[in-house]
């Protein structure tokens, strides 16, 4: 009876040994630094895609604070211009189109608000990489206060230093 028990453990052990290379490959993948681990530098430019016309001031074609309000979410989605992949202008606009089409109710891409990371960090916010399947340069602006009035105040500061680029 003891021998049968040992035999069962022996078989499972052999089975496990065969799986070791797969396990090692898995660990290497998990432990290796991938593109979503590349930190966001303060001088990097971020694109906030403008998918609602109400986010643009008609008078001077600047971005309204509403474009930078994360509510009801806890993070604000942006796309890094240059990391981990240095995006061409065409690639950046293609991602913007994908963002507009991926909305619950497909939207129109009107343009983008470009902003450097430094002014975001001055508002005690942080930008973290958050690579998604079709956007390797995706990132989130996090650490937003839960208070809507504070969010609005920060959004006013961010919109003031952003540059609106209309989609041509």
Helix content: 25-40%
Please compute the radius of gyration using only Cα atoms. Answer: 23 Å
Mean pLDDT comes to 85
Global outline:
globular
H/I helix tally: 4
Summarize the model shown:
The chain is of the alpha+beta class and 168 residues long. The protein is 38% helix and 18% strand. Strand 4 and strand 5 form a beta hairpin.
Topology (elements, then pairings):
Blueprint: H1 2-31, E1 45-50, E2 76-80, H2 89-101, E3 111-116, H3 117-122, E4 126-129, E5 138-142, H4 148-161, E6 163-166
Antiparallel strand pairs: 1-2, 1-3, 2-5, 3-6, 4-5
Structure description:
This protein has helices at 2-31, 89-101, 117-122, 148-161; strands at residues 45-50, 76-80, 111-116, 126-129, 138-142, 163-166. With 168 residues, it is of the alpha+beta class. The protein folds into 2 domains: 2-32; 40-166, no CATH class. It has a 6-stranded antiparallel beta sheet, sandwiched between helices. A hairpin with an 8-residue loop joins strand 4 (126-129) and strand 5 (138-142). The protein is globular and about 35 Å long.
Question: Notable features of this structure?
Answer:
168 residues, 2 domains, alpha+beta, single chain, globular, 6 strands, 38% helix
